[in-house]
Amino acid sequence: PVTDGSRELHSLCAQLEFLLQFDLKEKRSFFGQRKDYWDFLCQGLTRCRQEHEGIHFVTSLDKLKTPVGRGRAFLRYCLVHRQLAESLQLCLLDPESLCEWYYARSPFLSPKRRAEILGSLYELDCVTFHLAL
């Protein structure tokens, strides 16, 4: 199993975060806080489902104060529970929402690249992750 000490885990999470932040439009909350991929994921999953367990778990963690911290915790939760590909796929279903959150260079706006990314993420479902959440 992959654990917190794994170099590959850190590289994987960095690449995932890079993909989710690449060409992300700058948005701000009502109070001026910069929105990040965490906000995109929340909006996408809320639109598709009543409640995602990962979002509920992450929002219950009082120590997490920033959208980036919440996003990282959500990625780890999804890896442990083998939900990353499915969760991201649900967020990528709505082309209007994608255009609202991402500029044209984002790989998520290319059907071919999106399929490649999701295919790779579904392969991660075979990997066991034992991470501290």
UniProtKB/TrEMBL annotation:
<dbReference type="GO" id="GO:0006914">
    <property type="term" value="P:autophagy"/>
</dbReference>
<keyword id="KW-0072">Autophagy</keyword>
<dbReference type="Pfam" id="PF02759">
    <property type="entry name" value="RUN"/>
</dbReference>
<keyword id="KW-0175">Coiled coil</keyword>
<dbReference type="InterPro" id="IPR004012">
    <property type="entry name" value="Run_dom"/>
</dbReference>
<dbReference type="GO" id="GO:0005776">
    <property type="term" value="C:autophagosome"/>
</dbReference>
<dbReference type="GO" id="GO:0072383">
    <property type="term" value="P:plus-end-directed vesicle transport along microtubule"/>
</dbReference>
<dbReference type="GO" id="GO:0071353">
    <property type="term" value="P:cellular response to interleukin-4"/>
</dbReference>
<feature type="domain" description="RUN">
    <location>
        <begin position="3"/>
        <end position="133"/>
    </location>
</feature>
<keyword id="KW-0862">Zinc</keyword>
<dbReference type="GO" id="GO:0008270">
    <property type="term" value="F:zinc ion binding"/>
</dbReference>
<dbReference type="InterPro" id="IPR037213">
    <property type="entry name" value="Run_dom_sf"/>
</dbReference>
<dbReference type="GO" id="GO:0051050">
    <property type="term" value="P:positive regulation of transport"/>
</dbReference>
<dbReference type="GO" id="GO:0007033">
    <property type="term" value="P:vacuole organization"/>
</dbReference>
<dbReference type="GO" id="GO:0005770">
    <property type="term" value="C:late endosome"/>
</dbReference>
<keyword id="KW-0968">Cytoplasmic vesicle</keyword>
<keyword id="KW-0458">Lysosome</keyword>
<keyword id="KW-0479">Metal-binding</keyword>
<keyword id="KW-0863">Zinc-finger</keyword>
<protein>
    <recommendedName>
        <fullName>RUN and FYVE domain-containing protein 4</fullName>
    </recommendedName>
</protein>
<dbReference type="GO" id="GO:1901098">
    <property type="term" value="P:positive regulation of autophagosome maturation"/>
</dbReference>
<comment type="function">
    <text>ARL8 effector that promotes the coupling of endolysosomes to dynein-dynactin for retrograde transport along microtubules. Acts by binding both GTP-bound ARL8 and dynein-dynactin. In nonneuronal cells, promotes concentration of endolysosomes in the juxtanuclear area. In hippocampal neurons, drives retrograde transport of endolysosomes from the axon to the soma. Positive regulator of macroautophagy in dendritic cells. Increases autophagic flux, probably by stimulating both autophagosome formation and facilitating tethering with lysosomes.</text>
</comment>
<dbReference type="GO" id="GO:0005764">
    <property type="term" value="C:lysosome"/>
</dbReference>
